[in-house]
Amino acid sequence: MANHGECLAKTSSRCITETFTGTHDFEVTSYSLLEGMGVGKFVGSSTFSVGGYDWQIRFYPDGDREANEGAYASVFLFSTERSVKVKFTLNLFAREGSISVLNAAKPYTFESAGLTYGYTKFVEKSRLLQLNDFTIRCNLTVIKEPRTQDVRVVVVPPSNLHDHFASMLKSGKGADVKFSVAGQVFDAHACVLAARSPVFMAELFGHMRESTAPCIEIDDMEPLIFEALLSFIYTDTMPDNLYVGANMPGLLDAADRYGMDRLKAMCEQKLYSSISVQTLAATLALAEQHHCVALKDACLRFLSSRDVRRAVKATRGFKNLETSCPSVVMEFFDMAARLP
Fold it and tell me: Which of 70, 195, 218, 289 has its CA 20 to 30 A from that of 250?
């Protein structure tokens, strides 16, 4: 007990609950061929990891139980983990990206291994037959056990190195190299560029050295694309003001040109998410030109439906592809001949 007039030390603590969120897309093609496989039988996604735990989407084309009377398809989230608290949604997207089924996130606890939670009456089979090709998207948040932390503990702030580099690029302080792109001049720091790109390393410090020139000319590139390239070099993030259809092909070309493998993969991911009947031919040509194997495979998987193939062949982009990339068109027809 404190003596009269003695100040008591003030202490405090806080409760912290960590969460980890991830998304997995499970593409289902040719549903009409899956219908009739039988009640209680499912097709599963590949295993994906969120929060250090493994998960799988299980889709039942004819429903998971007889009570559905064969009218509904079912979908569930499966886990081999135990004592894991989560919130998740399982939503259905049509091929062109429109939402067909939207469910609100609900909390669940996987008390033991092998449990599944989801929707017995996920969507009417008649709607799936109309779509035939669709994507089931799982947005999953793993909720860790809460823990109490003494607030006197030193909390290390997150890294803001990228903010400092972005500020240095914007201010131009210490810049020692200039680039001219379609008449627009950009200041940069040779050491930063060289550290991030093997091509810039060769151009600025190697036998290809151009640093003696007062201003290095960059041909065949738009200023907006070069600005985005510089931004990524300094911050390791892609600018938000780029549009997939208009700017992503140019940025992919720049990433490939300067040996920026991470940026190239990010561009591939953006282009993959925007694949449609109208964009397929142009995306396939880009994938072939820049040796983007995963993007090319995604384009060819998109063509697994006969109706989609017929629609793509009718586009102007496909006609241009016949001229610019005849080998890709031959691969297209070879694949089409093997599919139903």
Answer: 195
Q: Which residues contact 154 (CB under 8 A, 6 or more apart)?
A: none
Q: Does domain 275-338 have CATH number 1.25.40.420?
A: yes
Cβ-based burial of 134 (10 A; exposed 0-12, middle 13-18, buried ≥19)? buried
Q: Which CATH number fits domain 163-267: 3.90.226.10, 3.40.50.970, 3.40.50.1820, 3.30.710.10?
A: 3.30.710.10
Residues 6+ apart with CB under 8 A from 69: none
Q: Are strands 177-181 and 216-218 parallel, antiparallel or unpaired?
A: parallel
d(CA 28, CA 34): 9
Confidence band, pLDDT 50/70/90 cuts, at residue 308 = confident
Q: Is 67 exposed, middle or buried (0-12, 13-18, 19+ CB in 10 A)?
A: exposed
Domain 17-147 has CATH 3.50.50.60: no
Q: Which of 153, 124, 169, 122 lies closest to 26 in space, CA to CA?
A: 122
Query: Rounded to an integer, what distance in angstroms lies between the CA atom of residue 196 and that of residue 166?
Result: 14
What is the distance between the alpha carbons of residues 187 and 174, in angstroms, rounded to a whole number?
A: 9
Report the alpha-carbon distance of residue 59 to residue 310 in Å, rounded. 28
- The residue type found at 313 is K
pLDDT tens column, 16-29:
999 999 999 999 98
The string of pLDDT tens digits covering residues 226-238 is: 999 999 999 999 8
Here the tokens at position 306 are 């006969």
Beta strand extents in the chain (DSSP E only): 13-16, 19-28, 43-44, 48-50, 53-60, 72-79, 84-94, 99-101, 106-110, 116-124, 134-143, 147-150, 177-181, 184-188, 216-218
In sequence order, what are the residues at sequence separation of 6 or more whose Cβ sits closer than 8 angstroms to the Cβ of residue 75? 57, 58, 59, 60, 90, 118, 119, 122, 136
Q: Which residues contact 46 (CB under 8 A, 6 or more apart)?
A: 56
Q: How far apart are CA 105 and CA 91, in angstroms?
A: 10
CA 166 to chain centre: 24
Q: Could you tell me the residue ranges of all domains in the chain?
A: 17-147, 163-267, 275-338
